[in-house]
Each structure stands twice: as structure tokens, then as C-alpha cells.
């Protein structure tokens, strides 16, 4: 499992309408984004496709709350459904599910000194590691403001 530490700039612009119940906003190239979407954009710059897995609303997102949720393409959808079947639910899925060809990865974001991995996320990791099919990479991104 990989670990990364990132520092972001705090959004100082106008408040947004739906901040997902007070979720911190990051200044990403002059626009407000949640940390998950910043990291998703970073992955896209490296050739990955992916989504922010909004477990609370059971939706897959590529943008802020005002952007319509997306459906997964057939390959990644089949892959994720196999994991969900074994887990019994989407809950515990890591924040970002990304794919490039037949490579998959999960990324979990934790704000430094404020968040930690939950038991459901540990279970998700263990279930995937126990499956016989293609193994994804896992990355934990610890982040904070500059």
C-alpha cells in the first residue's frame, strides 16, 4: 500500500451553495473543490479515469454536488460489483475508484491529524486482497492545508 502526503491551499473565495455539510474546500486552479475531486483530477492528469465514490449518497461523482452523478463504464462497473457482492454493500469503499485499461486503484483521503481509516474501510481492503481476480493498487493520501 502506498502513502502520500499532500498540502493544499484553502479556498478563500465565495462560499458555495452545497458544501456537503461543511466539507473543507480547496482552491484548485482558482475554483473550489473537495479534496477527493482534487486528487481525482491529479489522477486524470496521469491518464487515469475514475470517480469519487460518494458512499453516503450511493453515487459516483466526477464533479461537485451540482454536477450530475455518473454511471461507471461496463468493465469498472463489473469489477466493483464483484467486490460489493462479497462485501454486501458499497459502504467501506475507498474515496476514489480509478482505472486505466485493466488496471484498477483505490485511493482513500484522510485529513492529517483529523481522520483515520474506519473499520469498514479496513474490511473493504481485506475483502479485495482475498479475491482471486486482478489486484488493484491502494493509496492512502494524507492531506492538510499549507
Distance from first to last alpha carbon: 25 Å
Mean pLDDT: 96
In what range is the share of β-strand residues? Answer: 25-35%
Count the beta strands.
8
Question: Would you give the CATH topology?
Answer: Trna Endonuclease, Chain: A, domain 1
Order of helices and strands: EEEHEEHEEHE
Just name the CATH architecture. Answer: 3-Layer(aba) Sandwich
Radius of gyration: 15 Å
Low-confidence stretches: none
CATH class: Alpha Beta
Number of domains: 1
Largest sheet: 6 strands, mixed
- Total helices: the number is 3
Strand order of the largest sheet: 1-8-7-6-4-5
| Helical content class | 25-40%
Overview of the molecule:
The chain is an alpha/beta fold and 146 residues long. It has a single domain (2-145), classed as Trna Endonuclease, Chain: A, domain 1, CATH 3.40.1350. The protein is built from three helices and eight strands, in the order βββαββαββαβ. The strands form two sheets. Strands 1-8-7-6-4-5 form a six-stranded mixed beta sheet, covered by helices on one side. It starts with a strand and ends with a strand. The model has no long low-confidence stretch (mean pLDDT 96).
What would you say about this model in short?
This protein is of the alpha/beta class. It contains 3 helices and 8 strands, in the order E-E-E-H-E-E-H-E-E-H-E.
Topology:
Blueprint: E1 2-8, E2 26-28, E3 31-33, H1 35-45, E4 49-54, E5 59-61, H2 74-87, E6 96-100, E7 103-111, H3 119-130, E8 137-145
Amino acid at each position: 500500500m502506498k502513502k502520500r502526503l499532500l498540502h493544499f491551499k484553502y479556498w478563500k473565495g465565495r462560499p458555495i451553495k452545497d458544501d456537503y455539510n461543511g466539507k473543507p474546500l480547496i482552491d484548485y486552479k482558482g475554483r473550489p473543490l473537495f479534496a477527493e475531486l482534487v486528487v481525482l483530477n491529479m489522477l486524470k492528469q496521469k491518464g487515469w479515469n475514475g470517480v469519487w465514490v460518494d458512499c453516503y449518497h450511493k453515487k459516483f461523482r466526477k464533479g461537485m454536488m451540482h454536477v450530475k452523478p455518473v454511471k461507471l463504464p461496463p468493465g469498472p462497473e463489473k469489477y466493483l460489483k464483484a467486490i460489493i457482492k462479497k462485501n454486501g454493500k458499497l459502504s467501506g469503499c475507498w474515496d476514489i475508484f480509478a482505472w486505466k485499461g485493466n488496471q484498477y486503484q483505490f485511493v482513500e483521503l484522510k485529513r492529517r491529524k483529523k481522520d483515520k481509516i474506519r473499520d469498514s474501510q479496513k474490511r473493504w481492503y481485506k475483502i479485495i486482497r482475498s479475491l482471486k481476480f486482478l489486484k488493484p493498487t491502494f493509496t492512502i493520501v494524507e492531506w492538510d492545508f499549507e
